[in-house]
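As a warm-up, study this chain.
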Amino acid sequence: MKNKIKHEIINNKNYIYLAWIISILTILPQIIASPPLSDSKHVIFLYITLFLLILISKFSKVLFIAAIFYINVTNILIGHIFMHWGYNGKITSQISVFFDSPQHEQMEYMSTFIDYKDALLVFYTLFVLILLYKFMMHFRHSFKIWRLVALTFFSIIVLPLAYYKNPLIKVEPFSLLHEYQEAKEFTEYPKLRIKYLNKLDKTTDKNNTPLYDTIVVIQGESVNKHHMSLYGYDKNTTPFFSSLKKKKNFYQFNAISPANLTRLSVPILNTPASVANYLDAFMHSRSIVGNFGLYGYETHWISAHAPSGLYDTINSSIAEESETKFFANIEFDKGKKKTDMELVKHLQNLQEQNSSSAQMYFIHLLGSHFKYEERYTEDMTMIKKSESTKDSYDNTIYYTDFILKNIFTFFQDKIDQGKKILFVYTADHGEFIGDNLEIGGHGRVSPFKDEYEIPFVVYSSITNKRIDSLLKNNEKGYFNLENLNYMVEYISGIRNDANISYSSKVMAAEPSNIYDYNDLKFFDTTTP
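Now compare it with the structure written out below.
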């Protein structure tokens, strides 16, 4: 028996060596990208996978080739996520973001974040696949005893794993199809939420009397408050807000976003959903838009974002609660690039309708979403010749301040006429920005503090002791804006409890990935 085994090894040594080399090169990117050693289970699983690949090569060349090809394809996707955003052993959230993003954002993403590192990974993968092709075409084996031994060990390892709720298809690199299905199911939630809301009673007790004739809630996009001169930045990026700060009834708060992705943060900011209770609370509650509608406000959803990606976005289900909806960048998908100024023009069109009822406007800016250089116009820049990502980003902050000035100016006539108006400005999440030409973004699985550092500003045309109370409470520590909806309703007078959150818990990329904000570090701007 020993002589037969030895004879099989000698006769097939080239086949064995190449199978080993291909298997190691295939699993190596997965091991490098794997979560830190603290998550030892995933690393162990990858070594088991390497062992299984070697076993497969002994008894089924076809199955070996198929497995190697599949894992190498996943290497490109997992490697990209690892290099740019951090990787925690799952890519469901990134797949969901792709589904939720309109075409123009998908194209902007690819042109911004597909770089030489991805090209090197593709070349690496092609090299492995070339070896696989040579292996497929030019190498044969004559295993008999080893075929039986390998098949036996393979069965002993795989069958128990498959028996326990199919963990093989739920752990990467084998979970891609499973995660694709999970992400696809997530996109069904908007329809289910709208269906639930349509069944709700549309009456309210109206025990409270609203304090304002007009409510304007403005949410920026990807705004890092440390790039605002209003919050102490050394460049004058917010000249309008800095001047407005001198006025009475202007309030500036210290706050953080509850999540570092729009599709997570917007639902949490504007509904009873929280970091601890995200999906169920969001799916079974109205937003501030719907609640103001119950109090007799004519509600308007005005967004520079598109209403949907490959499927309807979860944020669009909030838009469905408003009486009118406007999405400025539907035209973006036709190659026509528009800035946030389109939202100001739409406000002017709404003005012509001359509605006499109370008004609630929800305005979602494109703000500082990458590509930064496409978020502003050349005639309205602070830095005329942008030489870095940081310069372009600062220009987006400057342009947003210009847009906010136009929005405030638009409502000034109503204030002069004695109308009581409340302005609330914040952002869905922050952004980390580097000093060089490449670095900037949000939505990392292993996040930076910068991704949660957002502005929170309130301006009231009337004296409001409720805002004074909030400002005093803000001295205790930063607000987590997971309860922004309650605070806006409290300030407006339609509820009596601000329900302030001082929680340090924040989401990173997906609902189950929760961090303590206080434990996070700021992005190192000197990173090459």
